[in-house]
Structure formats: C-alpha cells, structure tokens
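Note to self: keep these together.
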Amino acid sequence: MDSIRGTDLKFIENIFESTLWSTRFFVLLAVIFSMLGGIALFIVASADVWNVVVEVFNVYVNHLHPENFHEEIVGGLIGAIDLYLMAIVLFIFGFGLYELFISEIDVAKNSAASKILEIHSLDELKDKLAKVIVMVLVVSFFQRVLHTEYNGAVEMLYFAGSILGLSVALYFLHKESGDH
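Structure:
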C-alpha cells in the first residue's frame, strides 16, 4: 500500500515539475515581441535616414540652403543611429532570453558569424545590454547638444564637463570588459 502511495506521489510530482518547467515557454512572448520591436525600430530608423537623403537631394537639386541645414541633417542621422542602437538592445535581449530559458541557437553556434548574440548567463546579458544602453544615452546626449544654444562661458564649461564625464564613463566601461 505504501509503495502505491509513493508511486502516486512521484507521478504527481513529475506532472507538476513538467508543468512548471513548461511555463518557461512564456518567455517566447518576450522574445517574439522584442524581435518585432527591433524590426520596427530598424524600419523606422531606415525611413528616417531615407528622409534625410531625400531632403539633402532636394536641397542641392533646388540650389537651396536653409538655415541650420547641417544641424538638421546631423540631428536626423544621429536620431536614426539612436533608433538602430535601441533595436540592437531589443535583439540582444530577445536572443539572450531565448538562449537562457529555451535553447541554444544551433544555427548561430555553427556559424562563423560574430558571437555578440551568444549569451551564457543573466549577468552576461545584463552587461551586454548595459553597454548598448550607455551608447544609446551617449548618442541621445549628442543629439540634444546639437540643438542647444550656449550663451556664456559657464554653459560652455558645463558642456565640456559633460563630454569629459561621458569620456571617463566610456573609458571605464571598456576597461572593465578588457577592450582597452
């Protein structure tokens, strides 16, 4: 009688554990929507670059040179770079979640391509995401700087200090990863 009861408990335990283990597939929602979000950002950023190219073409064909033209062009391109970097964040996040919770990506493992999307731990995923997010912040900072007016020496000093701060942060970010 006790062996039957032990067998029943083991059966229930196996069912519960396999159900619990199967819930990891809900991570696929985050993976799928991260990929879709990344693709959407790539499309939007590419459309932005296309619009900049068309605008430059129209300006030079029509022999016009609007005021602040260079700042607008550079700002548009930096904005597109910002979107591309955010798309990369979503891709790294999606690939990392898939490899951590579902399975290694065999096609990527057998490929001679870059290993940037290989993720072996949650800490490694966080480190890769943090580096790209810092780059997004740096690009966003420079996009905002383009449209800032400086009315005095103190503002220029703040600008120089902020660039120095970003440079030091990037130095330590690369020093930590051994990329210096």
